[in-house]
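Bumping my old thread because nobody answered last time. Still need a sequence for this structure:
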């Protein structure tokens, strides 16, 4: 197989992922994906668990399905399958092998997944209302490119500190951004599972596209809210810094921590370590966080949409999407209170 003029990047990846049904759910609606795009391998086989970033990059995903019965499982699996296949079909065929094109293809793949899930639900009434979150991360050279929909998360652990580099598309995050509540209040709120967007409910989705430069020793953690809702970022950072434990053990221990605290939801985690001569050491002058990636396409919109439009949102067991339109932060609070009081 020709590797598109492959040259050694000097960037080494070690990765593992694990998912668990949790303590209260009857079945697991989470899905994850680990893939070496250059070599077209998507698996947890040894050659993918340890590989060098190739000319076409690598791909990692977590998708948290919703919709009840088997609908959420179908949606999350469709999301990971569609994103991977679209990148194989389109990105690997591109002659323009640039960060701009890679980021565009990543966003396009997530939008394609949304369209496919939406159409499938319309064609199968028994799956009506299904949807899924996604945190999709592409690695090309020494950069991460993240396509976010919903409230699954990506943390970057650098020099012992875990920093969230995605932004939840949730009611609580919107109120935090507006200065209405603190992050601590948001984490404790009974309405923290109200999400404002997912793949599937609507024909179109607005993807939050961001980026982050990698440094030697960085660790990326992707997870569904079954983990982030039970385990703090400080606890995640402390565990992944234990280099005497392999990634399989670390994934298992994070899931055990969430289960020990009740395991109220499905739990999924992917841990990725970055090392090698192709990366430079971190600098105290650099910032890590949510950084919007500016596509050159003038029609591209990388900001997250705050509402569902045109169709009813899914009503999952573990997530509660909110239907609002054109509301201020104060209006969102009022709508959430009315929504909770209605008992829906």
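Sorry it took so long. Here it is:
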């Amino acid at each position: 197989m020709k590797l598109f003029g492959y040259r050694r990047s000097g960037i080494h990846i070690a990765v593992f992922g694990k998912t668990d049904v949790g303590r209260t759910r009857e079945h697991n609606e989470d899905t994850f994906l680990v893939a070496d795009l250059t070599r077209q391998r998507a698996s947890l086989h040894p050659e993918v668990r340890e590989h060098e970033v190739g000319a076409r990059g690598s791909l990692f995903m977590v998708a948290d399905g919703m919709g009840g019965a088997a609908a959420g499982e179908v949606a999350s699996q469709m999301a990971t399958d569609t994103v991977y296949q679209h990148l194989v079909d389109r990105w690997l065929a591109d002659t323009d092998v640039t960060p701009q094109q890679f980021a565009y293809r990543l966003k396009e793949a997530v939008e394609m997944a949304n369209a496919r899930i939406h159409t499938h639900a319309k064609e199968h009434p028994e799956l009506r209302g299904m949807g899924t979150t996604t945190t999709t991360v592409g690695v090309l050279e020494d950069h991460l490119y993240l396509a976010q929909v919903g409230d699954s998360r990506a943390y970057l652990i650098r020099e012992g500190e875990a920093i969230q580099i995605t932004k939840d598309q949730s009611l609580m995050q919107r109120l935090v951004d507006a200065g209405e509540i603190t992050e601590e209040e948001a984490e404790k709120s009974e309405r923290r599972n109200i999400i404002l967007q997912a793949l599937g409910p609507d024909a179109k989705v607005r993807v939050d596209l961001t980026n982050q430069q990698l440094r030697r020793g960085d660790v990326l953690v992707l997870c569904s809210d079954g983990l982030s809702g039970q385990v703090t970022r400080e606890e995640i950072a402390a565990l992944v810094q234990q280099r005497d434990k392999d990634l399989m053990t670390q994934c298992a221990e994070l899931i055990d921590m969430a289960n020990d605290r009740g395991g109220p939801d499905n739990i999924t985690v992917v841990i990725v370590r970055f090392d090698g001569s192709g990366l430079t050491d971190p600098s105290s002058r650099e910032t890590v966080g949510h950084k919007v990636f500016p596509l050159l396409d003038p029609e591209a919109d990388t900001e997250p949409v705050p509402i569902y439009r045109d169709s009813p949102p899914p009503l999952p067991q573990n997530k509660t999407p909110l239907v609002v339109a054109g509301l201020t932060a104060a209006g969102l609070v009022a709508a959430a209170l009315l929504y909770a009081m209605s008992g829906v």
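The longest strand covers residues 12-20. Let me know if any region looks off to you.
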